[in-house]
Design a protein that fits this description.
The chain is about 80% helix and about 0% strand. It is mainly α. The protein has one domain: Orthogonal Bundle (Tetracycline Repressor, domain 2), CATH 1.10.357. The longest helix has about 45 residues.
């Protein structure tokens, strides 16, 4: 009886270990697919990304790819979320530096001076690329982009709000409204720089914004 129980427990742990290894392998494959195709969806868009793009990039068959995702839409959403998380983490980082609210906003503006370089491995700006492409092609992707925009604007607004409370800033409008205006200018420069492939749009706009912040916001 004891021997039987010993063998039963041993088999249980062996099966559990195999299941864990299989689960871990599946998770690694899923993550590999997401990381590999995220720049492709950002570059070509939801409709423009073909199955041949995906199979060629990943080295996997169509069946292997969709064995991990329900459909193309689910894969595209996961790909956008991957790029989104990278972008949000970076914006959180640049806004969380030690210093005043002005210094934090300066840090954000300075980040956008090199934004095109930062987003290059991502297939370009996920907000611009996916946001425009999804408008008439995919409602869920469009909604995901809108939520990301709101999250970024919220992070900027929080810095402005804290700066106002601490008496560092003079805001002509409510923090969220100014955050929206600031982000609109930054994304406008991203859009123009992307369309013309001219970095002067980013360079000139960020230089202007640094001046604007100091003349309009600093007490």
């Amino acid at each position: 009886m004891v021997l039987f129980l010993y063998h039963a427990v041993s088999i249980f742990f062996i099966l559990a270990k195999i299941k864990l290894q299989m689960s871990t392998k599946a998770e690694r494959t899923t993550q590999y697919i997401i990381e590999t195709v995220a720049p492709i969806f950002s570059k070509y868009g939801y409709v423009g990304t073909s199955m041949s793009h995906l199979t060629e990039a990943t080295g996997l068959t169509k069946g292997a790819i969709y064995g991990n995702f329900e459909n193309k839409e689910a894969l595209a959403l996961s790909a956008f979320e991957h790029n989104q998380n990278i972008l949000l983490a970076k914006i959180e980082e640049v806004l969380s530096i030690e210093g005043s609210a002005i210094e934090k906003i300066d840090s954000l503006i300075n980040f956008y001076r090199q934004y095109d370089i930062f987003t290059l491995p991502m297939g370009g700006c996920p907000i611009l690329n996916i946001g425009v492409d999804a408008q008439n092609n995919n409602r869920l992707l469009g909604a995901a982009v809108k939520e990301t925009v709101k999250a970024i604007e919220g992070k900027i607004a929080l810095v402005l709000e804290n700066g106002k409370i601490d008496g560092e800033l003079k805001l002509p409008v409510p923090p969220l409204q100014f955050a929206k205006q600031l982000y609109t200018i930054l994304q406008g420069a991203v859009a123009m720089g992307t369309m013309t492939r001219d970095r002067k749009y980013l360079m000139n706009t960020t230089t202007y914004l640094e001046y604007l912040v100091r003349t309009e916001l600093k007490k």
